[in-house]
Amino acid sequence: MSIIYVIVKVLTLPGAILHAFFEHMVCRSAKIIVEDERVVQFNEMLSHVDHQLIKRKGPSFDICFIPFFMNFILGFLTLSYGSTAIIYFAKYEDVFAWICLYFGISLLTNLFPQIEDVMMLKDNYLVNNDKKLNKALVTPWYGIFFVGARLEKWGLTLLTSVGFAFLVPVILGWFIPALYNLIK
Amino acid sequence: MDENKEKLSGSSPDEESIKDEMEELAKVFKAELDKAKSEAENFSDGLENLEIEGYNPQTVSRANKMPVREVELCEYCGEKPRGTEKDPDSPYCEDCESVLEKYPYDYRGIIVAVLSVCITIAALFFFSVNVPVFASMKQGDKAVKENKLYTAVNKYINAIEYAENISADKTYFNIYKKEALTYYSLVNMNSAIIETDENIPDAVLRLLTFKDLNDVLQETERMQASAMVIQNYTNKYSEINDENYDKIIAELDNLKGKKIYVRGTEYHDETEKDFTPEDTDIEFICDDAWINMYKYAMAQEAGKDEATIAKYLQATADSSLYMKTLVGSLLSSTYSKMGEFDKAEKLATELKEINCEAPDWYAAMATIYRLRDKDYAKAQQTCDMGLKVLEGLPDGESYVMQYGYILQVQQTLSSIMQDDLDSAYETAKQVYDNLSMTGGLTIPTRDLYALLAWATGDKETFEALELEIESYGDASIGFSSDVTDFKAGKVTLKELAESGRYDII
């Protein structure tokens, strides 16, 4: 267990807890056995739930994708205000904007599944003989999850999420002004 | 490994003791196995007493009927046999698996989930409120990238209006910063300073993210201090002529690289004899660009030739982008008068890259077409294009009023060359009216208007201008000799138009 991993997870506790919560939701909906539901434990399971190995294809993808997707969407939407206000407007006196910025970064730091889940995804879709279409669809996600899980192991997702927070006003700038003019 | 094998195959006393120990262990394992078997036979009693969520007596009875395999008890309860109907290899019993599948959520997860949804909704609400500010600011940024600095300033002003409608506290510091920086790029130093002083607190200004603005303000302060110190020297002379010109230039040269000091509203330099740099607020190195700028002004006043003027202007323009923007048009016009049209065109293109909405490039090109190619129609077309750009800006009329006169003067001169005096007079009148309103009226512009009034027979206007000049009571701002010479028939209007004295940049 990397101490940096735990420090980063503790620093971004709301995101870690929410990621574990979404993993648990997937487990319950897919009837995957959860062996330990505690979302706050200061070891490598912080931000994950301890569940049985998943041998079914659908749930093995869901356990990686759904917590990733939910944390990403909530994180992005929260950062839409946090990043814009603090980074773009320099509205340093806005306390709620700081909360949004922290919350968004914490959610984006905890996007990725644990490496065991990524390996199960690989076993279920890529190693076993599967349809080519399925393989083609899952391979990019496997790559993202694999790299993300490795980065997360060393706490590097904190840096990527901070970097992303700086990118959010740029991304919003691609379509918000045009959309605003259209509505206006 | 090989050594161990050799040892086992031998019959030393050590090997004997190992054999004994292994037999002892086998007996212990057998006893434990018997105990486990007897416990497994009684497991149904334990199941009846089990009170866990999801307990189903039917599944228990089904589990009872399943054959019990040796040492394969449920990993969770440790009492019932492993495996379910669905998955015989499961490490859990049927009951425990059904319980574990519905393992309750950690309450902290639920709290954070609810909290995050609330924060996200609130964030979306606040972001949507700020969309007009964001959109205007982004449009301003885009305009800056496209070198459309007038549009950029307009967009930033719009963003400030939206922001101040949301919150009157002026906390959107970055908009003020961007507006001030754009003003600086437009060589509007005063607006940059005012915007910063009024809206950005010193604590914010010291932050790393505001370093660019801080640098600009320091540079502005240095330029202002340099200008003030230089004026201490130039103001000593009431008139600049050939006699004192060289002396002033030498004094200005002497200021190069010298320290200047600011004490309240006083400006000093280290060459002053009676000055000691104690209790001074700030010290700078005197700005070379402003020394060259004042040398140009002195050369102009002393009536030096175009080459001397161009030399000082070029040195000024080369020092920074700010100074190039400030004197670029003037230098381009000077090069045109000298017949160095390539230099003039190159400089005009550089100015267009700084701000493509400014009339400088159009005016410079119109001058080139007029003086080099004698293509007056093309010169007028170029001016029309420049005016259209200004008119197309938000609040275009005010831009035409502020900056359009540069182009309108070129149009006037081209019309004179085409013998279209009525059109020339109309445009000159417009220039005169606009500059009178904005306070930017110059003697050549007024004289051009007077010349055309006389040429078109509008003596009433000419006399009104004469009366106006008389009312000032200052002979130095009276009509130039061009007007009297023209009235006396000594020079023609075309000669005056080509003289370059009316190319106001």
Account of the 3D structure:
The complex is a heterodimer of chains A (184) and B (505). With 184 residues, chain A is mainly alpha-helical. Chain A has one domain. Helices cover 73% and strands 3% of the residues of chain A. Chain A contains seven helices and two strands. In chain A, helix 2 packs across helix 4 and helix 5 packs antiparallel against helix 6. The mean pLDDT of chain A is 90. With 505 residues, chain B is an all-alpha fold. Chain B has five domains: 41 residues; 59 residues, no CATH class; 98 residues, Serine Threonine Protein Phosphatase 5, Tetratricopeptide repeat (Alpha Horseshoe); 98 residues, no CATH class; 147 residues. Chain B contains 25 helices and three strands. Chain B has a three-stranded antiparallel beta sheet, with helices on one face. In chain B, strand 1 and strand 2 form a beta hairpin. The longest helix of chain B is centred in the N-terminal third of the chain and has 39 residues. Chain B is elongated, with a radius of gyration of 44 Å. Chains A and B meet through helix 2, helix 3, helix 4 and helix 7 of A and helix 5, helix 6 and helix 8 of B.
A few lines on this structure:
Chain A is built from 7 helices and 2 strands; from the N terminus they run ααββααααα. By secondary structure, chain A is mainly α. The model of chain A has no long low-confidence stretch (mean pLDDT 90).
Provide the low-confidence segments of chain B as ranges.
1-11, 50-55, 59-63
Dominant shape of chain A: globular
Give the number of helices of chain A: 7
Number of β-strand runs of chain A: 2
Give the largest chain-chain interface (CB within 8 Å). A-B, 48 and 47 residues
| N/C terminus separation of chain B | 98 Å
* Mean pLDDT across every amino acid position of chain B: 85
- Rg of chain B (C-alpha, Å): 44 Å
